[in-house]
Every structure is written in structure tokens, then in C-alpha cells.
Amino acid sequence: MMKTLGIALGAGVTSAVLFAVITTASPVAVVLAYLAPLPIMIAGLGFPHPAGVAAALIGGGTVGLALGPVAGLMFSLALALPAWYLARLAVLGRPSGAAAAPAASGTAPAEWYPVAPLLLRLAALATAPVLLAGLAVIWRYGSYDAAAAAMAERLSVVLSRDALSGELRSADFVRYAPVLIAASGVVMLSVNLWLAGRAVAISDRLPRPWPTLPDAIRLPGPAAGVLAVLVAATFLPEPFGLGAAVLAAALAVVFLFEGLATVHAVTRGLSARGAILCAVYLVTAFVFPWPLLALVVLGCIDCLVPSLRQRAGIAFTKPPKRKP
């Protein structure tokens, strides 16, 4: 018990410190804050369940004491509790045909929590704080128009000192910032969960076998229909259109992951696979936004056409031999 408490205390305080350094507003601080969920996820993946939840609570309390109750609440809702919950889901397993049970229930589970539903829940956790913050701001100012005007006025002061302000208006930031925050939240939680999983797996404390991600990231078919509905709903009047855009951006990132998984799957067996994957990642990172959109579309196609990978894999990796 004392060991678990010590692990939770160390993970929670470390996570809080990583988050709190963002107040220095330096580039290094932003990177460190990006890794704030990592210690809590490591505690949740590699140690008994109480260590993860205690780490999340300790981290939220530490931030609240250091930066105030509002910051502590934001940290808990946006980072700490999602980190614990995702780690908890990742190590849930069940015997074949039996009810769900924790991985540490005795015998090794035959079925582990699937990666695709885990990503969908991750996207929901990334968008929930953004939507709640939007509702809180609207409630404070009485209406969406009043809230948008107030936020735009505050941002105009910052943008007047920004080199990009000549191209972007503060009103644009009010609309696009929640969408970008939701999308980046999905990336942040996904990257931290992957890093935590690899770290715990290297230390031989990960209860489940490491999944083959290109094969595991396969979203259910209805998810593509949900994305199409959300994209269409972005044309609704505000704030409904903005809320739909937030949800669509988060789900689109998950389809982006499936698009990348499809590229990994269909290039198996190719001699130039390394060069192809390197080119895809470089173009995706430095050319915006068309490669990202192409991968999202590829993910949607892969979701709707389950046989796409098999057919492409046969075509790429097993070309017919030429007759002499």
C-alpha cells in the first residue's frame, strides 16, 4: 500500500510540475506541459489501479494549490482524469466469452480492450473539456455573440503584437481556436498513451501484449457516417456549428490515424517501405493541410471498405510473375 501511494505521489506531483511550468511561456515549457499526462498514464498502466487514480487526484490537487482552484479543475478535467481513465481502459481484459474483468484478476485475459474503441473514447475525452469551457463562457456572458465579442476583444490585444495578426483576425481565432485545441488534444493524449505504453512495456510491467497498431486501428463503419454528419453540421448557426466543428476535428484526427495505419499495412513487403513511410510522414508534417485531409479520406475509405487493405496488400506485395 505504501509503495502504491509513493508511486501515485511521485507521478501526480511530476505531472503537476510539468503542467505548471507552462506559466513561464517558453518553448521548452510548452513541450514539458505537453507531456503532463505521461506520469499518470505510466502509473495507471504499470502499477495497480489505485496508483493511477490517486496520481490523477494528487496532480489535480497540486495544481490547484499552486495555480488556483480554476487551474486545478482545468488540469483535472482536461489532462489528469482522462490520462487515468485511458490507462485504465488500456489494461482492461476479459476471458473469451466472459464478462469484462481487470487484467490483474488472476488468469491472463484472452481479449484486451480494442485499440479502435479506445481511440474513440480518447477523442471524446479530448473534446469534452473544450465543449464544457465553451458552455461556461456562453453562460457567463449570457449568449454566444456576447461571449465571442468579449473573447475577440481580449485576443485583439494579443494579436496586435503578433506577426500573424495581419493575416488572421481575432474573430477567426475565436472560431478556430476550440477546433485546434480539440484536435491537438487528441494528438497529445494519443502520443502520451503510446509513450507510456512503450515505457511500461520496456520495463516488463505492461499487463497486455503490445498490439500491432496498423492492424488494430480499424474504426467501425458508422464512425464515417458520424464524421460526415458532423462536417455537414458545421454549417449550422453558431454556437452549434462551432460545436460540430470541434467534434468533427477530434474524430477526423482518429481517422487520420487510421489513414496512417492503412499506409503502414498496404506497404508491407515493399523493399522501399521505409522510404515511402518516411516521405509520408515528412509531407504530412510540413505540407498543410492537404496531406492531412488525404489521410483522413483514406481512413474513411478503409473504414467503409474493410477489404481495402487485403486487396492493396496483394497488389503491392505479391506482383504476378512475368512469363519468360
What is the mean predicted local confidence, pLDDT? 84
Q: Tell me how many strands there are.
A: 3
What is the rounded Rg?
22 Å
Report the major sheet: 3 strands, antiparallel
The secondary-structure class comes to: mainly alpha
Portion in helices:
over 70%
H and E string: HHHHHEEEHHHHHHHHH
- Physical arrangement of strands within the biggest beta sheet: 2-1-3
Distance between the termini: 72 Å
Question: Could you list the spans in which at least 5 consecutive residues all have pLDDT below 50?
Answer: 98-105, 163-167, 314-320
Number of helices: 14
User: What gross morphology would you assign?
Assistant: globular
What percentage of amino acids are in beta strands? under 5%
Concise summary:
The chain crosses the membrane at residues 54-87, 118-139, 176-195, 216-236, 242-263, 275-298. The protein is an all-alpha fold.
Plain-language structure description:
This protein is mostly helical and 324 residues long. It has helices at 2-20, 27-34, 37-46, 49-67, 69-90, 115-141, 144-159, 170-202, 213-216, 222-233, 240-266, 273-286, 290-304, 308-317, and strands spanning 92-94, 101-102, 111-112. It has a domain at 213-317. The chain has 14 helices and 3 strands. The protein has a 3-stranded antiparallel beta sheet with strand order 2-1-3. It starts with a helix and ends in a 7-residue tail after the last helix.
